[in-house]
């Protein structure tokens, strides 16, 4: 998180099922409530994996996603004394409006952290007072306090880190064992000098590989590692920059159905893909690999008829991407303005442009964040603000950004270790030939 966005003040810490959960508020925003999930490493220290913060009196953070079950963390900070009980509500069947209670619990302390395992996602929350009256509307009325920062932050890839550490450790043990068991006989400096002077040709190298069992092993190891690394890398970067391949990749990586690519645009090695589907529209960012194929790593989705801004912050460059899908002809222009939480500050226009077509991608970089995200305003031809007529309430996030980076490094580590192993075989003397001599 941007360091000047919030200044957290810890309220409660609790270890549940081997994971550490920390709730916090903010020194400048007393109504801000947030939580961070930490996982413990092999060194018994902790690493943050997900955070959630906003102005909600009681909130839910989804964690630990898997095929059948996931966890929901319900937390409260200085919970209003009127709230005595809460329930998680979900509609299991769209054709049957009857609601099912997933879980519920009494609130016995103003600060609390509760964890539940469920196969469903919470879509509604009901709050009750001590007499059983539903007082949800007093706290969740569909509006948010824009003066309080809110958002979610995730940091994946820990499993890939552990896998890479394991591979490095095992490969190092194998190589150490190899050199321990195959200690080459010492070669004099003069023999090394004469060997260097001998010109190596392809035919001589081929002959050495054929006649020397160790060099044959070296060639086989090198070929196997090269093929395995290429296949593994291609499994990660596997999407062609064609409409059909991009559409299938988006359907696999998101829950979009019957995807249609509307527009694509390249930017600094990334491929930005604007799409529309039966259930949503949005933008997916694809990263290009060394094999010139692509892999999706970030996305943002909305409903139809929307114009919105996507903020992508990276170490190399920062950018704002403004996209529109099925824009109404009434929308003539947009502005991306500074969203100060202090309403007395003058609003600064970062970017503005005219809207010439219903589907578009506009890229602005480098973007230098001034502390807070910007907001987008949409205007008609007469300059009237018509932002409220557009949908920009979708979701987004990283698909596999950190894991993709680690998988790429894993391919590199496997290739380098394979080269070392092949080199070890290559320098091993032909003991059988020496004995014959």
SSE layout and pairing:
Elements: E1 8-16, E2 19-26, E3 33-40, E4 46-54, E5 58-63, E6 70-76, E7 85-90, E8 100-106, E9 112-118, E10 124-128, E11 151-154, H1 158-181, H2 189-197, H3 202-211, H4 213-236, H5 243-253, E12 260-267, E13 270-276, E14 281-288, E15 294-302, E16 306-313, E17 318-325, E18 333-338, E19 349-354, E20 360-364, E21 374-379, E22 396-398, H6 401-426, H7 431-436
Antiparallel strand pairs: 1-2, 2-3, 3-4, 4-11, 5-6, 6-9, 7-8, 7-10, 12-13, 13-14, 14-15, 15-22, 16-17, 17-20, 18-19, 18-21
Helix pairs in contact: 1-6, 3-4, 4-6
Notes on the protein architecture:
- It is built from 7 helices and 22 strands.
- By secondary structure, it is α+β, with helices and mostly antiparallel strands.
- The longest helix is centred in the last third of the chain and has 26 residues, at 401-426.
- The radius of gyration is 29 Å and the shape is globular.
């Amino acid at each position: 998180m941007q360091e000047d966005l919030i200044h957290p003040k810890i309220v409660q810490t609790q270890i549940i099922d081997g994971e550490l959960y920390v709730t916090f508020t903010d020194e400048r925003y007393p109504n801000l409530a947030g939580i961070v999930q930490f996982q413990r490493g092999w060194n018994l220290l902790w690493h943050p994996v997900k955070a959630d913060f906003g102005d909600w009196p009681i909130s839910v953070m989804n964690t630990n996603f898997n095929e059948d079950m996931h966890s929901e963390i319900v937390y409260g900070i200085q919970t209003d004394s009127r709230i005595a009980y809460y329930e998680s509500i979900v509609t299991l069947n769209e054709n049957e409006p009857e609601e099912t209670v997933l879980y519920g619990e009494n609130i016995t302390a103003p600060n609390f952290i509760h964890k539940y395992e469920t196969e469903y996602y919470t879509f509604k929350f009901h709050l009750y007072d001590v007499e059983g009256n539903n007082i949800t509307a007093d706290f969740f009325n569909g509006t948010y306090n824009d003066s309080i920062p809110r958002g979610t932050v995730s940091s994946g890839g820990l499993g890939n880190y552990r896998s890479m550490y394991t591979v490095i450790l095992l490969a190092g043990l194998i190589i150490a064992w190899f050199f321990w068991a195959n200690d080459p006989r010492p070669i004099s400096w003069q023999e090394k000098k004469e060997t260097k002077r001998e010109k190596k040709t392809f035919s001589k190298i081929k002959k050495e590989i054929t006649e020397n069992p160790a060099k044959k092993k070296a060639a086989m190891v090198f070929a196997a590692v090269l093929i395995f690394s290429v296949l593994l890398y291609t499994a990660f970067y596997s999407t062609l920059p064609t409409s059909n391949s991009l559409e299938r990749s988006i359907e696999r990586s998101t829950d979009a159905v019957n995807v249609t690519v509307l527009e694509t645009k390249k930017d600094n090695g990334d491929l930005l893909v604007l799409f529309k589907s039966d259930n949503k529209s949005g933008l997916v960012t694809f990263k290009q690999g060394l094999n010139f194929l692509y892999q999706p790593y970030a996305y943002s989705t909305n409903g139809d008829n929307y114009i919105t801004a996507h903020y992508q912050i990276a170490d190399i460059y920062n950018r704002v991407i403004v996209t529109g899908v099925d824009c109404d002809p009434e929308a003539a222009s947009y502005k991306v303005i500074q969203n100060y939480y202090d309403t007395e500050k003058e609003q600064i226009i970062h970017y503005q442009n005219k809207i010439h077509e219903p589907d578009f991608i506009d890229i602005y970089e480098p973007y230098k964040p001034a502390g807070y995200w910007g907001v987008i305003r949409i205007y008609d031809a007469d300059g009237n603000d018509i932002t409220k007529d557009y949908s920009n309430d979708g979701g987004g996030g990283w698909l596999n950004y950190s894991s993709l980076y680690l998988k790429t490094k894993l391919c590199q580590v496997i290739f380098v270790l394979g080269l070392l192993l092949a080199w070890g075989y290559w320098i091993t003397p032909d003991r059988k030939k020496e004995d014959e001599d």
